[in-house]
């Protein structure tokens, strides 16, 4: 039986692992993929303090992981299916069911992160992997000297539009309003790039193509006029969806599925804490995911000490 199980090994889960390791809690980190989480879809991170000029995401994650390993905290390759609770000495004991193994723990930190949201338009699902992508880092080299569209107006869309411009001949950003949501520094960089065009106040009506993306039908939301724009790739960055489906019956979530926590990162269930992009908050950044990992581990440690 563990004192703490951390689910997820992105920046939040890994930082929780560092703190739990230093508290000498008997800890296990469960991760269904390689460590890093959603941030691995970006090639570089430029706003993490201490690295002027930025740092390659892989290098940053490798450093986090080494810090956890050096403390002797163990990892298991596992995809959690359910968490259930029984009572032991008047406190909950959590049973975590994996693919074919079960784990028992006195406390849990959920750090499962989030994934890219789908747009939900005609052609999107059918052409995913055939011109429709949610990862510029993975797919940008396939679009060398081609024309691509990027959908969304947030930090992610702007970062990726800039990244794609070093491969594609032309990149067009389509955003549903006339103001971008992204940080000004990213917008300034994109606007100064001659390869990047903007189509504002517009949404995607359909992604068109027989076997691969050939064009996109774009509708202006002010005039309701639609035009077809030919392109070979469509990159969609319209926000994130938390990995919390398996928690629906156990924890209080908001309407979009993000976990509700208090300032100590305690969830609605005693002994379960949450940190990073899976929780409801205002700012989704690596820096506060890490800070929340530290707070969640602090709270879990306090909870274990008070038994
Ligand atoms: P986001 O900030 O939520 O932005 C989503 C964008 O997609 C918004 O511009 C939104 O439009 C648009 N959108 C949403 N639903 C849409 C729909 N159905 N059709 C058309 N457009 C739609 O999401 P994100 O850019 O993926 O970033 C997620 C979080 O990670 C954010 O908190 C972001 O700040 C953070 N992040 C930070 C960095 C960084 O600092 N380096 C990098 C990447 C991500 P509206 O603006 O009209 O709502």
Question: How would you summarize what this structure contains?
Answer:
With 307 residues, the protein is α/β, with parallel strands linked by helices.
Describe how the helices and strands are arranged.
Elements: E1 2-7, H1 11-22, E2 27-31, E3 44-45, E4 55-56, H2 57-70, E5 74-77, E6 82-88, E7 91-97, E8 102-110, E9 114-116, E10 132-133, H3 136-139, E11 147-151, H4 155-164, E12 170-174, H5 184-191, E13 196-199, E14 202-208, E15 215-220, E16 226-230, E17 233-236, E18 240-242, E19 272-274, H6 286-305
Parallel strand pairs: 1-2, 1-8, 2-5, 8-19, 10-17, 11-12, 11-17, 12-13
Antiparallel strand pairs: 3-4, 6-7, 7-8, 9-18, 14-15, 15-16
Helix pairs in contact: 1-2, 1-6, 4-5
The chain binds NADP nicotinamide-adenine-dinucleotide phosphate.
Name the features.
307 residues, alpha/beta, FAD/NAD(P)-binding domain, 2 domains, seven-stranded mixed sheet, five-stranded parallel sheet, binds NADP nicotinamide-adenine-dinucleotide phosphate
* Beta-strand percentage range: 25-35%
Main pleated-sheet profile: 7 strands, mixed
**Distinct small molecules:** NADP nicotinamide-adenine-dinucleotide phosphate
Tally of helical segments? 6
Which fold name fills CATH's third level, the topology of the largest domain?
FAD/NAD(P)-binding domain
Helix content: 10-25%
SSE order, one letter for each helix or strand: EHEEEHEEEEEEHEHEHEEEEEEEH
Report the uncertain regions: none
């Amino acid at each position: 039986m563990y004192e703490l199980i951390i689910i997820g090994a992105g920046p939040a889960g890994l930082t929780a692992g560092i703190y739990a390791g230093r508290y000498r809690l008997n800890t296990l980190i469960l991760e269904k993929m390689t460590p890093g989480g959603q941030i691995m879809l970006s090639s570089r991170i430029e706003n993490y303090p201490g690295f002027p000029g930025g740092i390659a995401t892989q290098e940053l994650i490798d450093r986090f992981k080494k810090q956890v390993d050096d403390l002797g905290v163990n990892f298991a390759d596992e995809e959690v299916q359910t968490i259930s609770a029984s009572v032991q000495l008047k406190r909950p004991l959590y049973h975590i069911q994996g693919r074919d193994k079960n784990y028992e723990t006195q406390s849990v930190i959920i750090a499962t992160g989030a994934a890219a949201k789908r747009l939900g338009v005609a052609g999107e699902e059918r052409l995913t992997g055939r011109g429709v992508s949610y990862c510029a880092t993975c797919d940008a080299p396939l679009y060398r000297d081609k024309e691509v569209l990027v959908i969304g107006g947030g930090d992610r869309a702007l970062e990726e539009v800039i990244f794609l411009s070093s491969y594609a001949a032309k990149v067009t950003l389509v955003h549903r309003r006339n103001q971008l949501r992204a940080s000004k520094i990213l917008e300034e960089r994109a606007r100064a790039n001659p390869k990047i065009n903007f189509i504002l106040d517009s949404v995607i009506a359909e992604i068109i193509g027989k076997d691969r993306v050939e064009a996109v039908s774009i509708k202006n939301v002010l005039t309701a006029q639609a035009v077809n724009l030919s392109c070979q790739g469509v990159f969609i960055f319209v926000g994130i969806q938390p990995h919390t489906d398996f928690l629906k019956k156990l924890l209080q979530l908001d309407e979009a599925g993000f976990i509700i926590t208090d300032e100590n990162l305690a969830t609605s269930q005693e002994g379960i804490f949450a940190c990073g992009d899976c929780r409801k908050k205002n700012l989704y950044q690596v820096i506060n995911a890490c800070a929340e990992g530290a707070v969640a581990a602090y709270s879990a440690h306090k909870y274990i000490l008070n038994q």
